[in-house]
Amino acid sequence: MSYLTRDMAINALKRMKDFHDDVVSMYERHDMDILDDLGRRNILLSPTQEKFFADELAQAYEGTTADGHPGQPDILIPALDKELECKLTSRHKSGAWSFQTDYETLLAKGSLDYLYVLASPGFDEFAVLHFEGLTVDDFRPLSSGARGKVA
């Protein structure tokens, strides 16, 4: 049974959606459309995934934090001795979904838990995929030109 519940995910996604709507409005006020580049939008919203999911997890697991700095876990859950990597992704123009990770980090850690949030272009439909204990064997081999990322 997952330590991340459906209710936690729904609450975090609602907060992410509110933040998204604020960002869209701010961009529109400056005559820009953040939805023209979903990759950029997802980069802007990645910290909200970490913070809002960590806030939900902290209600059940004391000491849960989201740091977000390079080299630090996205979410640290000391009560469970867990690190949770967060990835926000949208469908590529080709129709594919990207489930990537940093190969060197995963290799060094041995295994990690992952929280992939798949978002529609309008940021109004989601899928939340939570994996526990993934290793480098769960991803494709590292290829040249992949800049350390594996799918």
Q: Any overview of this molecule?
A:
This protein is α+β, with helices and mostly antiparallel strands and 151 residues long. It has helices at residues 6-29, 38-60, 103-109, and strands at residues 65-66, 75-77, 82-90, 101-102, 112-119, 126-134, 149-150. Helix content is 36%, strand content 23%. A 5-stranded mixed beta sheet has the order 1-2-3-5-6. It has a two-stranded antiparallel ribbon with strand order 4-7. The mean pLDDT is 91.
Layout of helices and strands:
Blueprint: H1 6-29, H2 38-60, E1 65-66, E2 75-77, E3 82-90, E4 101-102, H3 103-109, E5 112-119, E6 126-134, E7 149-150
Parallel strand pairs: 3-5
Antiparallel strand pairs: 1-2, 2-3, 4-7, 5-6
Helix pairs in contact: 1-2
Cα shape: globular
Helix and strand composition category? alpha+beta
Number of strands: 7
Strand order of the largest sheet: 1-2-3-5-6
Helix run count: 3
